[in-house]
Design a protein that fits this description.
By secondary structure, the chain is α+β, with helices and mostly antiparallel strands. It has one domain. Helices cover 51% and strands 16% of the residues. A 4-stranded antiparallel β-sheet has the order 1-2-4-3. α1 crosses α5 and α4 packs across α6. The radius of gyration is 17 Å and the shape is globular. The relative contact order is 0.15.
Length: 149
């Protein structure tokens, strides 16, 4: 039996991508986002390990001159602890670009991360166009707040 040459048809890739797509949220204005606390198990992480990946992804964002907060919006989520007590914990709203950066900064020895990393060549153009749209919006917003336009 020959191995598939198209990564998008492999079971690991399809399973991971389908799971991530089911975790996607859409705002009333049609913008898509994910919640970090929902996707970390889908990528084979504990929260403690995933928090470091988020930090590396945000550093990568900063390193190319993009404001991380435009793609990694910190929030909090109430969780129930083992003792039935509740506590607020850090969470993040993530753009598609943030998810891309998380994937490429993740641990490829995790099959789920390797599958998400395989998306890179297929979605790179989509990701870059999202960054360009974001930069245009930021310029428009900045111009508007300064009385320009």
């Amino acid at each position: 039996m020959t191995e598939p040459t198209d990564l998008t048809v492999t079971p690991a890739y399809r399973s991971t991508m389908e799971r991530l797509e089911t975790l996607k949220h859409i705002t009333a204005s049609g913008k898509e986002y994910w919640l970090a606390r929902e996707i970390y198990p889908a990528l084979g992480y504990t929260w403690e390990g995933f928090d470091g990946v988020i930090t590396r992804a945000m550093d990568a964002c900063s390193g190319v001159g993009i404001v991380p907060e435009n793609h990694f919006r910190q929030t909090s989520t109430m969780v129930v602890l083992g003792s039935s007590a509740k506590r607020n914990v850090v969470n993040y709203f993530l753009s598609r670009a943030a998810c891309y950066l998380i994937a490429i900064n993740g641990d490829p020895s995790k099959p789920e991360v390797a599958a998400a990393q395989a998306i890179s060549p297929f979605r790179h153009v989509e990701w870059r166009s999202g960054i360009k749209r974001n930069r245009r919006s930021a310029k428009i917003s900045a111009g508007s707040s300064c009385g320009v336009g």
